[in-house]
Amino acid sequence: MKKILVVLGCIIFILQATGCSSAGSGKNGNNKIVVWTQAAADHPEGKMFASRVERYNEANPDKLQVEIQNITRAGAGSGYIDKLNAAITANDMPDIFTLDGPDVAAYVDAGVIGELDSYMSNGFKEGFTDSIIQQGTVDGKFYAMGYSDSAVAVMYNEDMIKALPADIQAKVPAADEDWTWEQFVALARDIDTYAKSSSDAAFADYKLAVSTLLSDIASGSYETGTYYFTPLLWGNDSNIVAEDGLTVDGVLNGEKSLQALTSYAQLFAGDPLASASEPEKAFHTGKAPLAVAGFWYVNELKDNYPNLKYRTVRYPKMSEGYSGSYTPSGSWTFVKSGKITDEEKSKQVVEVMEWLTNDQAAEEYYAANGAIPSRKNAISVINTNTDNAYYNEAWTVMQYQVEKTNKARPVSVGYPYLSETFAKDVLLKIAQNQAADSETIQKYLDDTVKKLDMEFAKYKK
Amino acid sequence: MGFRNRSYKRAEVITAYCFLFCAIVLALLFIVIPIGRAFTYGFTDYYLLKPDDKAFIGLDNFYRIATDEVFLKSFLNTLQFVVLVVPLQLGMALGLAMIVSKKVIGNAFFRTAYFSPAVLSLVVISILWTVMLNPTSGLINEILTGLGLPAQPFLTSTTQAMPTIVFISAWSGCGYQMMIFLAGLTNIDKSLYEAADIDGAGSFKKFVHITLPGLKPITMFLVITTTIQAFKLIVQPMVMTGGGPDYSTMTMLQYIYEYGYRHRNIGYASAITLVFTIFLIAVSMVIKRLFKEEKA
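^ Those are the sequences you sent over. The predicted structure of the assembly is below.
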């Protein structure tokens, strides 16, 4: 009898272990509001969400209490997204969850996230920066509240640049000047030529001219590539997909995209200036004098590489005459489950989302994590008057881009595939094959368009 | 024959059925139901985010497989990996087993050292090798250039990436098989070697005519298990190359994962799974047949 009980116990354990855990709307009912985030509990981002939620619960003891659950993402967000997708399949979604901005449209199309306009406080949406509103809007409706914005600029190693001949130094723009991609590549080429023939101590560790983080694409973080380099197409009045989010033929493989990507490819022509397998922290450790650098570099350099003298200049524009927005932006957002049927709960869920993304929250996130505020009123909280001139300059440049030139990534139901295919089959392929001629790049683009069209056919039905 | 005549106590019968039930539940949960689901989903346009909106699309997914260049590439990559890694890994394992079977000083240390990669996580191994093989700053190229040899692109080259992964996989897996070969070597009757010595046989002849035949059953077992394991390659390319460059290291399992989860196209991923499962069943049957012939 004992054995039988043990066996039955095992079976029950297995069945429980293979079943789905309860988390979301399906089983929460109206007892609590569950929030899922990809931020680890011990990460500054996770801590700040926990702190906001705790204060909300304390201030609203009579309302539904909010419970935050941290499902740490791996690499490109896979662990978290896999669990979220499984929860959607099992109709067991949390009430509020985080999503990367460009993914919002796909979840809207699937009907799993709900619109926010009818529940939001007056004027709350307008408080977000323009690119965050763009990123969260699908077919004219607002679905996602970005809790931070982002920016990408170019950084250079001051010691290495100072060691260059004056004529090369003169090619480096000022922090408040626009410059073009062509000028950027020309500068990188001059640095590379000099570094390879110089015995100057500043170039003792020199490995490559530009750090681009393309190695992230090679290891599966495809979005980094799209985030960093789609702006080259924007700056040439083009894009990776048309406004409808699904038409790629004639856009991605169009003349202007080809021009932009042929210019991008000059980084890898001849003696390559950048590499898809660059050393880890190449810019931080003096192996690369230039870097296409995300906003997170600023705090990383301040905290972990305090001796590195770096300067920051604007993200290069592909075409000098282009006057629209063109710099990288966007980040993760909070969205509301589309499965909540109770109106009162919906109202409170949106109230919680506002609490997690309002001006005060944005200021706190900046203080805790160096996250660029997603709220117009909070951008001024970025401190550009510290005693660290490098830090001040970097934030000044990024603040300018957030306010003046940032543009949201395309809104497309097929975005994850679009982004991955573009990063892998175009950006990475150009880098790895050192393809610099327009015929080869055109072929890459045509092949990519063919693949995308095949995959997007299901959305066009 | 005695089993048939033997009568079991009721409690024994119940216990036996309970254990059988347990195995059946596991098989149903993790083998039969998933294969059945993959079979039905393979004929639908199941999109992960719209689980309630599946439509039957006939053979569309299978037609797509027939024209999918990346599928073909992934399939050939997987085959290439299996064909290369099985003999290399078993050869390395046998070689190491022969070395550590000698009674020399430091033998225990070498056994542990050779076996240690087998207990390390594949993810850890993959990350370590990725750092060491970095073309611009990796240790391996530092050594090569230090010796006056040209630096190699390794994982960033379409021609070198797969052989590199094959080598790393063989290195990380051969320690475990070394231990099994070692057990086999100790079971070979020592008198056979003594007789061969008296007959004047050299080391090579003894290896070919005594050692290899003595290890045949073990070798067959290892060929089967290593082949099956090799078809399941996913961690190393996923961590080290992401399936690149230019899909040169994309394997079937990674392709299925990418389509199912990253691209959320469960219908197409299921169709690929089905095709690959049928292929694996065919391979298993061939191996089983060979094994039977060998036993006969």
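The mean pLDDT of chain A is 88. The CA atoms of residues 49 and 67 of chain A lie 11 Å apart.

Shout if you want it in another format.
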